[in-house]
Amino acid sequence: MNNRHSINDVHALEARLAARFASRLSAGVESMPHDVTERLRFAREQAVARAAAARRQTAVGGSIVGVSAHGVATFGSFVPWWQRAASLLPLALLVAGFLMIDQWSTREQVLAAAEIDARLLADDLPPAAYSDPEFAEFLIASPAPPAW
């Protein structure tokens, strides 16, 4: 089944829907006070004028994506280069943050390894003693030195 409709089909459907809404809204107008009906008439005229402006904008500038309180937003309109660059700024900051975290982590690992190496070299035992299996048993079996 083809889900695409021509623009004329969409406009016809919108016109039928608008006619149904208008008929439902017009059903109780006779019982309303005069000032309310005048406000409704004015609001209706403004809505028709905005719809006509939106149709003209669509015909001239492209398709309409949405309507906000500030006006009509169009798809495919020109975006300055600095706005596009500004949209990439959060991504660049995120990548820079990850790189800084990686460098900090690597530096901490190097400093920890250097501290272990310095303690091994400053100790009275030769480094080969640490790899001796009997030394590990000696550490497990020996009592802890008294704390003064």
Strand percentage: 5-15%
Helix/strand-derived category reads: mainly alpha
Low-pLDDT stretches:
none
Q: What is the distance, rounded to the nearest whole angstrom, between the alpha carbons of the first and last residues?
A: 89 Å
Number of helical segments? 5
Q: Indicate the radius of gyration in whole angstroms.
A: 39 Å
Shape: rod-shaped
Work out the helicity level.
Answer: 55-70%
Read across the widest sheet, the strand sequence of neighbours is: 1-2
**What is the ordering of alpha helices and beta strands?**
HHEEHHH
Main sheet characteristics:
2 strands, antiparallel
Number of domains: 2
Quaternary state reads single chain
Mean pLDDT: 79
Strand tally: 2
What is this structure, in a nutshell?
By secondary structure, the chain is mainly α. The chain has helices at residues 7-26, 34-61, 81-122, 127-130, 133-141, and strands at 64-68, 71-74.
Task: Write a structural description.
Helix content is 70%, strand content 6%. It has helices spanning 7-26, 34-61, 81-122, 127-130, 133-141, and strands spanning 64-68, 71-74. The mean pLDDT is 79. By secondary structure, it is mainly α. Strand 1 and strand 2 (71-74) form a beta hairpin. The chain starts with 6 loop residues before the first helix and ends in a 7-residue tail after the last helix. It has a two-stranded antiparallel sheet. The chain has 2 domains: 7-74, no CATH class; 81-141.
Structural key phrases:
mainly alpha, 5 helices, 148 residues, rod-shaped, 6% strand, 70% helix, 2 domains
Fold topology:
Layout: H1 7-26, H2 34-61, E1 64-68, E2 71-74, H3 81-122, H4 127-130, H5 133-141
Antiparallel strand pairs: 1-2
